[in-house]
Design goal:
The complex is a heterodimer. Chain A is of the alpha+beta class. In chain A, helix 2 packs antiparallel against helix 8 (344-369), helix 6 packs antiparallel against helix 10 and helix 11 crosses helix 12. Chain B is 33% helix and 30% strand. Classes of the chains: A alpha+beta, B alpha/beta.
């Protein structure tokens, strides 16, 4: 206990020290970030759990893209109390010349199974509960649909030649959760309003809401697995919220971000810890001279570190609670019932994680403390620098952490490769530069050759400073560049689509009508590519759910039918990245090319067999090639592509995706086309732009916050790495003054030194950013990396200037070193 | 040197030591034997680079000799290096006070590290003994070199060790201050009865020791 108090006293004495403050500040930022993220995440998880209980609208939901057969319905009904079939069809709802894309929900007489519907008779008016769905011939629409179509209660609209009377505004469905928290507009109608084949079965999603007891749940679960493996089963009692896997991916992304922050923090603490370590070693040596065993000294150092952890942990935790409250308030705009919580268990778990991460960073310091010896107080000991090892240790431990956190192996590997190459490049440039500089300055006199000589003398510590600064600047530049470029790309992509109307789904029989409509309205069809809907069922005969459990963008998308396209040759906007694309006339129709990122995310390799479900039949394809998007042509590309000849063997209905340029005068005519073909799915460019802008606003908010933390850590790294050399610089300047040199000479020397540091650092950082751009842009963000040379030059100059200015600013004290001070020392 | 067997002593038995400078081996001394008794002061003198400080570090058990052995006897018991270190104190040429601690805290530090709850009273008593009670709250930077070394000496003696190893204790001080420091050190030695092994360039200081040896060209000569 005495040791603990002694460590506390020691912590108190050193807490005002700049190095100590920087290290504490860095620790604080990290703990704050982790805590805020974990607390917010826990509140969201709580919300999702509660949400699932309240909003599933039944005990079980079976969801699939084809209806159950009569036999299957019979089997299902034998296990359950009530079952209600709902169908969801995305259609274009039209009224006069206005049109709007909606999710039309067709329900039967058993709907709703649990809970009540909420409707109102006027926009913003009193809501009423209802246990029954709209009557035959009636429709309830979302108030947003009403506003867009300019309709109100009492109006009549037509869907597939069936006239429907708007009897209420739909405000809430008990199975609302199944709609997710999408912005899709909705309309509710009784399925019996439509006769026979009035609505197409294609593209329809079927949901079976089931009321059943615990025993029956297990039976249904087994039955679904055996009889309808392509179906998705959601159990209210098992907490499988549809947003849960999405949230896992968000968590993973932030996990990766926090690992980046930890990278920066390792560098910052490494820099700040340089002098601290020397001081600690001296203190330990003194303790040893007082007869205290080294192990006890290290224990004291550990206690001191522990106290520093606690000292920053408490304010960071309080701030994190505050931040959680603010974030949840922001989220309440989207999810009204979400509330901030205390989450003791989460706090404990995160504290342990933060503690383990920070102790990992501290471990090399404790190891080096083992070298403390009384001899160092008697005579000068050769100083072994572990700074580089420390940096590499940080790199290694955080690489492992990144690998654990990340759900995107390709991105993780590329990020690590970028960091590794940047480090190697900077090392090479540093050593190469000094080798040349020393050769050049060997027979020369003056301040410049002397400054090279001095820098070479402390090459090792200088290298660590350069590597730390360079890596940190590279990360900062990359974050800023990516943020800027994604923003620009989102804007330009949204605005530079090939046409101003995107056709996302046009059936074969609609194609002729579209062509005629285009001709009549002076519109121009720019692009049209065929596809069929297919569900990925198995990979190498293993069900997809079992094949991969890691959540990812790709995995989430495969929950729904994908677009399977065909082509003889390689499409103009694709390039084959590996494998062999099939030849025209090749008789083997079961060949498949998979997009590169999909291959990586699912861990696929050549000769893997993918089983697709097309209209209830299963087909197997063998992967023979991998393709990637090639910018410059059409923006429509597909993840899965097969030879055209395969079409003869498939039971496939052909759909098309494309774009049109519609003149201003033709827009009012679009309603007519959509009224005739309600399943024709089109989106105007304006809508895409608005959607992008909304997404961009969220992305910008998140990235600005993240960049602010990165920037803060960068400043810490710069200050720490510079202040770490203050004493050495002071001593050197004092010595130079004692040799009759002027103050301006010392200033010059300092300028040269920081200029060299700045140039190498900036070169490394810009090169690192370039490597990251080359490796990551295309493969991860579908952006072609086109370095802006003006931007690069500006980044180089600003970086150089910043390092020089900050360097000189922090060195200003070293100019005050007088010969008298040196003598006194 | 003849090997004497005493009750409490540190014995250097035929020790040799060298260090490497690049590929070269620089020998400091060979087959050197010497005994330091508790209760006696022993001074080692010699030119710079003769290996005096290395001899001190070997005797203190901070380093292992390249050949030979160092024994520390306490009665019939042979002490381990750790046990010897636990019973030792050091005085350095550069004082090595902790700059963040006050004079009193520096003095109290070894007691606190050993868990002595009376550290405050004991260190105050020593401070009075040194005549530095007015300086209790002063940081090392606010003390003169002599005052700092007096604190450092008291810090070495405050735990009543069996041996004190002093490396050029007056090396950084003027003549008058050196005498004050010498008086303090020798008085403390008498009062506590510990053994002092002293490495110095100062002949005045060496003369006051019970035994004095000169280390020249790797050989040890009795100088008094």
């Amino acid at each position: 206990m005495n040791g603990f108090f002694l460590a506390a006293a020691s912590f108190n004495q050193y807490r005002h020290n700049l190095d100590n403050r920087l290290a504490l500040f860095t620790q604080g930022i990290l703990i704050f970030f982790l805590m805020t993220f974990s607390l917010t995440s826990a509140s969201i998880q709580d919300y999702l759990r509660g949400n699932l209980e309240a909003l599933l609208g039944s005990d079980l939901v079976i969801s699939r893209y084809q209806p159950l057969s009569l036999q299957q319905r019979k089997e299902l009904k034998s296990h359950v109390n009530t079952v209600s079939e709902t169908r969801i069809l995305p259609i274009s709802l039209t009224y006069q010349k206005a049109w709007e894309r909606v999710q039309l929900k067709l329900v039967d007489q058993y709907y709703p199974v649990q809970g009540t519907l909420q409707k109102s008779l006027s926009v913003g008016g009193v809501t009423e509960s209802s246990q029954i769905a709209p009557a035959i011939g009636e429709i309830w629409v979302d108030t947003r649909v009403a506003a867009r179509l300019n309709v109100s209660v009492g109006d009549k609209i037509k869907i597939a030649n069936t006239e429907l009377y708007i009897s209420a505004y739909l405000t809430h469905e008990p199975d609302r959760l199944m709609e997710g928290h999408t912005v899709d507009m909705r309309a509710l109608v009784s399925a019996a309003s439509f006769t026979g084949e009035a609505l197409p079965a294609e593209g329809m999603q079927y949901r079976y809401l089931i009321s059943v007891d615990a025993k029956g749940r297990a039976k249904v679960s087994n039955w679904v697995q055996a009889a309808i493996p392509d179906a998705k089963l959601l159990d209210r009692h098992k907490g499988q919220h549809p947003l849960a896997s999405y949230w896992v991916r968000v968590e993973n992304f932030f996990g990766l971000s926090s690992v980046l922050l930890f990278f920066m923090a390792t560098i910052a603490m490494n820099m700040a810890g340089r002098r601290q370590l020397e001081r600690q070693k001296q203190r330990l040596a003194l303790y040893c001279s007082m007869g205290i065993p080294l192990s006890q000294g290290i224990r004291l150092a550990f206690f001191e570190w522990l106290i520093s952890f606690i000292a920053v942990f408490i304010p960071a935790l309080l701030l994190a609670y505050g931040a959680q409250y603010l974030l949840i308030q922001e989220l309440q705009l989207q999810f009204t019932d979400i509330t901030a919580g205390v989450h003791v268990d989460v706090v404990l778990k995160t504290s342990l994680l933060a503690w383990l991460l920070l102790i990992c960073m501290q471990l090399p310091v404790f190891i080096q403390l083992k070298n403390a010896s009384v001899i160092s107080l008697i005579r000068q000991q050769p100083r072994k620098s572990f700074a580089l090892w420390q940096l590499l240790w940080g790199f290694l431990t955080l690489s492992i952490l990144t690998a654990i956190y990340s759900d995107n192996w390709l991105l993780t590997s590329l990020m690590l490769l970028t960091m590794g190459s940047t480090l190697a490049l900077m090392m090479f440039v540093t050593w190469f530069f000094f080798a040349l500089a020393i050769r050049w300055g060997r027979k020369r006199t003056g301040i410049l050759p002397f400054s090279f000589f001095i820098m070479q003398q402390r090459l090792f510590s200088k290298s660590t400073q350069i590597l730390g600064l360079g890596l940190c600047t590279a990360l900062l530049l990359f974050t800023l560049m990516l943020m800027k470029d994604i923003g620009v790309a989102m804007h330009s992509q949204a605005r530079a689509q090939n046409g101003n109307l995107i056709i996302t789904d046009a059936r074969n029989n609609q194609l002729q009508a579209i062509k005629e409509w285009a001709q009549n309205t002076d519109s121009e069809i720019r692009d049209m590519r065929p596809y069929t809907r297919a569900m990925v069922i198995k990979i190498n005969d293993i069900f997809l759910d079992e094949y991969t459990t890691q959540p990812s963008e790709v995995r989430a998308r495969l929950e729904r039918p994908i677009r399977l396209s065909w082509s003889d040759g390689i499409p103009a906007n694709n390039r084959v990245t590996s494998g062999m694309w099939w030849q025209k006339g090749d008789k083997n129709w079961q060949q498949l090319s998979v997009e590169e990122e999909v291959m990586t995310d699912l861990g696929l390799s050549f000769n893997d067999v993918v089983t697709f479900d097309l209209g209830g039949k299963q087909y197997q394809f063998t992967i023979v090639a991998s393709h990637a998007f090639k910018p410059g042509n059409s923006s429509i590309t597909y993840w899965f592509q097969i030879p055209k000849v395969a079409l003869r063997h498939l039971n496939a209905s052909v759909h098309h995706m494309g774009s049109m340029e519609v003149p201003e005068t033709a827009w009012p005519e679009l309603g007519k086309l959509l009224q005739t073909y309600p399943t024709l799915a089109v989106t105007s460019l304006q809508e895409i732009t608005q959607r992008f802008d909304r997404t961009l606003a969220i992305v910008t908010k998140a990235t600005v916050g993240f960049s602010a933390i990165i920037l803060l850590l960068s400043i810490i790294v710069i200050v720490a790495s510079i202040s770490g050399f203050e004493n050495e610089d002071k001593k050197r300047n004092g010595l130079l003054r004692s040799m009759g040199m002027k103050l301006t000479d010392c200033l010059k020397l300092c300028c040269y030194e920081w200029l060299v540091t700045g140039i190498i650092t900036a070169t490394g950082a810009v090169a690192g950013t370039w490597i990251a751009g080359q490796l990551i842009y295309d493969s991860q963000f579908k952006l072609s990396y086109q370095p802006n040379y003006l931007w690069i030059t500006a980044a180089l100059v600003i970086n150089c200037a910043l390092v020089c200015v900050v360097g000189l600013h922090f060195c200003r004290d070293s100019f005050k070193a007088s010969v008298r001070e040196l003598l006194a020392e | 040197m003849s090997k004497s067997v005493v009750k409490n002593s540190i014995e250097l038995d035929s020790i040799s030591h060298f260090f490497k400078s690049g590929d070269k081996k620089i020998h400091l001394f060979k087959d050197l034997s010497l005994s330091f008794e508790m209760g006696k002061t022993t001074a080692i003198v010699g030119p710079s680079g003769s290996g005096k400080s290395s001899l001190l570090t070997l005797a203190a058990g901070l380093e292992e000799p390249k050949s030979g052995a160092v024994y520390c006897r306490h009665g019939s018991k042979l002490l381990t290096t750790d046990e010897l270190r636990n019973q030792s104190g050091f005085i350095f040429q550069h004082f090595h006070l902790l700059p963040e601690l006050s004079a009193l805290s520096n003095l109290a530090l070894p007691l606190r590290l050993r868990g002595d709850t009376n550290f405050h009273e004991k260190s105050l008593k020593w401070l009075n003994h040194l005549g530095l009670q007015q300086r209790a709250d002063h940081k090392p930077s606010q003390l003169s070199g002599g005052e700092q070394q007096r604190i450092a000496i008291a810090r070495a003696f405050i735990t009543q060790p069996n041996y004190i190893f002093a490396d050029e204790p007056t090396g950084n001080l003027d003549k008058v201050t050196s005498e004050i420091i010498s008086d303090l050190m020798f008085n403390c030695t008498k009062e506590t009865g510990c053994g002092v092994i002293l490495v110095t360039h100062s002949s005045q200081l060496a003369e006051r020791a019970d035994d004095c040896y000169r280390l020249v060209n790797g050989k040890l000569e009795h100088a008094s």
